[in-house]
Amino acid sequence: MGAPKQKWTSEEEAALKLGVAKYGVGKWSTILKDPEFAGVLRSRSNVDIKDKWRNLHAMASGRGSRQPGRTGYKSIQPTVKHVDSALHVSTVFENGIEVLDAKSLAASYENVEDVGSKEAISRLDDLILEVIAGLKEPRGSSRTTISSYLEEHFVAPPDFEKLLVANLKALVENGRLIKAKHQYRISPELAQMMSMSAEEAAAAATQAVAEAEAATAEAERAARDAEKAEAEAEAAQCFAEAALKALNPRTVRV
After folding, report:
1. pLDDT in tens, 230-254
2. Tell me, what is one Gene Ontology molecular-function annotation carried by this entry (predicted)?
């Protein structure tokens, strides 16, 4: 018998959801290789995350134990509750879907340069996106606004501002946030994904995969046609050379 499966943590679920939002359904290997998610999902295989996504989809659709409705991507104002803030922080959406249940940010972001810090950084990314989505400011949210909200609702580490600046910069560089006039807003692609139901997100991801597969097939056909044309050209050249030799055995022309 194999080793028993470990129960999925909220951090792993959040990483999987963000990975699907970034790459689409079916890109399990790509998600596992992405440095942004690799640290959190290091104990999971392609089959593990594929099965987990199917279960999350079923639960979000009302076929599982959780409440039916939107997934954790929905851009709504989060309701935050504290459970012994010195030890734990739990964030819950108004629709009852839990998105974070972890140690305090102060503990999570200690030794941020260590290898294991990828998990903590991923959690901060999630919180930043949820805050911006929840505030729903038309022109985006400033770093000051984001910082104030997080510090008000969570236990922040001493170097929180430095971490926030670094994470905001990374989110802009990977295209998940757009920065304009010192305001941060969620990219249209990610905002669309966050506003989708589980069924809509799955359909969009399926369409994207189908389009990518069609493009790959077309490229392969074009490559085969090019190889065929090259072979025909070489054959024609050989025939021409043979004909010249037959016409003038003493002179070989190329």
Report:
1. 888 888 888 888 877 777 765 555 5
2. transcription cis-regulatory region binding
CB 94 within 8 A of CB 77: yes
- CA angle 180/152/81 to nearest 5° reads 115
Task: Render pLDDT for 56-78 as a digit per residue (tens, 0 to 9).
Answer: 766 654 544 444 333 333 333 44
For residue 122, give every residue at least 6 positions away whose Cβ sits within 8 Å of its Cβ, in sequence order, or none: 11, 14, 15, 18, 36, 37, 39, 40
Query: What is the pTM for the complete model shown?
Result: 0.37
DSSP secondary structure letters along 131-194: HHHHH--TT-EEHHHHHHHHHHHS---TTHHHHHHHHHHHHHHTTSEEEETTEEEE-HHHHHHH
Of 40, 176, 53, 33, residue with least CA distance to 108: 40
Tokens of 88: 């734990």
Low-confidence ranges of the chain (pLDDT < 50): 1-2, 61, 63-119, 121
Contacts of 16 (CB under 8 A, 6+ apart): 31, 37, 41, 49, 52, 53, 56
Q: How far apart are the first and last CA of the chain?
A: 70
Q: Say how many C-beta atoms besides its own lie within 10 A of residue 129's C-beta.
A: 22
Distance in angstroms (rounded) separating the CA atoms of residues 158 and 19: 29
Q: Which of 176, 146, 171, 174 is nearest to 161 (CA)?
A: 146
